[in-house]
Amino acid sequence: MTGTGSPQPLAEHAYTRLKWRMLLAAMFCYFFFYTGRQTFGFAIPGIEEDLGLSKATLGAISGILLWSYAAGQMINGNLADKWGGRRMMAAGAILSTLLNWCTSFSVGAKSLALGWGANGFAQSLGWPSGGRVISNWWSHNERGRSFGFYTFAAGMASVLAFVTSTIVVDTLELDWQWIFRVPVLLMLVGGVTFYLVARDSPAKAGVTPPASYAQSAEEQAADAAALAAGETSLQRYKAVLRNPKIWSAGIAIGFQNTARYGLLIWVPVYFLGDDWKKADTGISPLWISVALPVGMAVGALVNGQISDRLFGARRDRPIILFMVVGAVMAMTMYAAPLGTTTGIVVLFLTGFFVYGPQSSFWALCPDIAGKRMAGTATGVVNCFAYVFAGAAEPLIGGLMDSTGNTGLIFPIVAGACACSALVALTIRR
User: Which pLDDT tens digit goes with each residue over 161-174?
Assistant: First the structure.
């Protein structure tokens, strides 16, 4: 692939190798992305002790990152459509690494909020940019599968964030500052590798897809009309936001992401609590918590596959199914008398069902808006996701302060899952 000269028509097997190369490059890069933003929960106890900040304040700072990420999604998804995802995803990884290091030198609430909030915007360059590249290389009937693998990488990124943070805090017994310094070095490697390996589209790679990959006549006509008219960013935003299914998908994923981040931020705090510290389980509580992101990763892979194979590219059905069962699993974590082994199993299943629908949501974006506006649609929907999650974080932190019961995160998650399932009934895609 040179990216120059006349495009060459490719045989099916040759194109298949290339599209998998692009998917794997995006997966490899995003596998490291959460080391830059899902480590905060592990730092909370150390920050509380060192800087004297309350859980409500730290919840608000966590929310600032999510709001900054939401604003960035709205902007950067559109820019990925305009400029291509390769450069933007790599830039996001590099900037986020630098800003995590800046955050590690915080001395109070203001400096912590500033560094962590700026990091949220840098992080927002990643997901829609990688999704834009994948949409360019994979056809409509394969989106559940391709985005399932991409979301699986994101789920495994949560595992990596949990594992590396646990090593820093529990194994190496380093101060909280090192949570923001060590794991993110992996993200830097991922961003540079993605830039070197990936190409934005078959045309940028200097190849022509086989006939089996050809766009539908409607998509080709829409792309040609947009190109001829010189479609602007504002026109893409208007086209996406006028679609009621985008609003349904955005609100549904908003509740789903509230449940997801409730688990990711507060489950480590729950397992660092006094009850688990006193329990004689024979295993570090933080290592028990790793079952959560492992379940999330597997759930994303399974959900993406069944949306294509079992539900015939109907994305709403697996979303509703997983959200309902996720609510049940979360309440089981809260109400049932669980031992160490059963706790690990139920926590795994909670992550599996709460996070799994993300695969269907991201495949839904190009399904609704078309491949041409995949980045814009993904960014808009992800903006909803993080506005909701960001609004919930300070409320959850305040509840933890007032009650002293970190286990309340599980009924909160169950309620958010139920709301997501109800809204998803209106998508009907």
Answer: 888 988 998 888 88
